[in-house]
Specification:
The chain is mostly helical and 166 residues long. It contains 5 helices and no strands. The protein starts with 7 loop residues before the first helix and ends with a helix.
């Protein structure tokens, strides 16, 4: 096995990247603690802990990664279906209908995944800017249990119930 030759500039770049990652890690930990202390909770709830917020963020980031993979898969399948659509010579109406249904289903799945991806990214942005946990309708705290069950939630339960009645 041959050893890789690295230039001094490449070594400096790797060292700089590692130092930046370490400082971000320390800064993230400090900012996570500050965010946990600043996050709104209902009167009947305990304040957010750093561990709870870290777990919540990790869940949202995991969802984002999973959704990105699902979207890539759906887009690849949709691409294959679109290529296959032009090759319909000799297909009867049932075959053409089945192909159309499959395409529409893939489009729908990809669009749903994109919507969830946007919601998850928005949740991370709200965590970063300090508005996570506040209802976008009334401004009251959403509630820890609701956010732990549905991390993308942007409405408290009373406002969500009102929205669903409309």
């Amino acid at each position: 096995m041959a050893a890789k030759a690295t230039t001094p500039a490449a070594q400096r770049g790797a060292t700089t990247k590692a130092a930046t990652a370490r400082s971000r890690s320390r800064g993230t930990k400090a900012s996570t603690a500050a965010q946990a202390a600043a996050m709104a909770v209902r009167d009947d709830e305990e304040p957010w802990t750093e561990a709870e917020l870290t777990e919540l963020r990790a869940e949202v980031e995991s969802d984002i990664a999973q959704l990105e993979r699902e979207i890539a898969t759906a887009e690849a399948e949709l691409h294959d279906l679109m290529l296959d659509a032009g090759d319909g010579a000799g297909d009867d109406q049932a075959d053409a209908g089945a192909k159309t249904f499959e395409r529409e289903q893939e489009i729908s799945l990809a669009n749903n995944a994109r919507d969830l991806l946007d919601q998850n990214r928005r949740a991370l942005q709200r965590m970063a800017d300090g508005t996570y946990g506040l209802c976008e309708s009334c401004g009251n705290p959403i509630g820890k249990l609701r956010l732990q069950a549905a991390p993308r939630a942007t409405l408290c339960m009373p406002c969500k119930k009102k929205e669903e009645r409309r």
